[in-house]
Write a structure and sequence with these properties.
heterodimer, A: 131 residues, two-stranded antiparallel sheet, 2 strands, 5% strand, elongated, B: alpha+beta, two-stranded antiparallel ribbon, 10 strands, 13% strand
Chain lengths: 131, 267
Amino acid sequence: MYDSGKILIGIIVFLILFTSPTWYDLVFGTPAKKPNLVLPTKADQKECVMSTDYMRDNHMELLNVWRDDAVRKGERIFITASGKDYEMSLTKTCLNCHSNKAEFCDQCHNYLGVSPYCWECHVDPQSLEKK
Amino acid sequence: MDQNRRKFLKLAGLAAFGATAGKYIDIIAKDTAHKIPIADSLSTRDLPTVKVSPKNRWAMVVDLKKCLVEEGCTKCINACHKTHNVPDIGNPKDEVKWIWKEPYENAFVDQENYYMTSSLEGQKIPIFCNHCDNPPCVRVCPTQATWKREDGIVMMDWHRCIGCRYCVAACPYGSRSFNWRDPRPFIKEITPEFPTRTKGVVEKCTFCDERLAKGLEPACVEACSTKALVFGNLNDPKSDVRKLLKENYSIRRKPGLGTNPEIYYLV
């Protein structure tokens, strides 16, 4: 092989430059800010409409079911396993307890880089107060 | 032999009942368990418990004589647009409206009897979505974002609207508005209980379905100080709307189109 020394050096320099963002991040980078949820402190509400585990994984699916039931079927009451009844409403029920969207919803959504478009129409009452 | 078969059948029947009786008791018990909390909570919280039922056929009667008592009154419009976060863009091209006013002869273009309604000529009368029995907007909607409920309300599902505007073209009454731009900056005071709309969806009056679910009358009816707007169930012969329609002469907008509007005007 002609000029093998130059080629090998070239390949090594290329590999170092190509992977440099990874190295730089490992040495100087700071880890992404972990979500820090502020849980609701409503005295009369001890539990969510479903278990915490379920809500953590599937709240978006529950919200879709609520949406279809309320708007399309006109069924607006949700009964929890413990027999409590709630109106199926993002603003009136969910945000009633989780009143601080920025410190609850947005924490994980920002961490995971998801931007649910619920808020393009549904109103977060706290965002109105701040104005 | 006969006697034995009889006995056998009786026993078999009893056994089958016994085996399934537990389930029936379970179902009955569950049913009541589901009903009690709702009934209890109704006294303390106002939950929307009224179901959509084909027994109801919601309709509205507009008594124009009472309506025109107060000149330039916009109470119904204000109440509706405030409740439902309807923006005031201030530009007729982008206008979004649920209730609006139109000169009488523009609203009733096919009313051809001379002099019958001369007192109404030139007067501006309130116009609503007609919640037609045969709604052309529903026929053309490609995503079923608008549909007719069992109780006659022509509903909108803003989640599903793709903004194709077929319904806007199909509605012969101009009841549908398209959001050409984000409406939020044009809402003076947002009512958080009701969503705003977003750019690219069509909106219109939904007969206050969210209030009906709580057993309340539509916001416009509640706001009218002269009781010119009367809301009720057309299927109920004793309802106020049926009484008014029986005792008065009523007209509807563009009846020749066969859409069967459910907003009746007393002239």
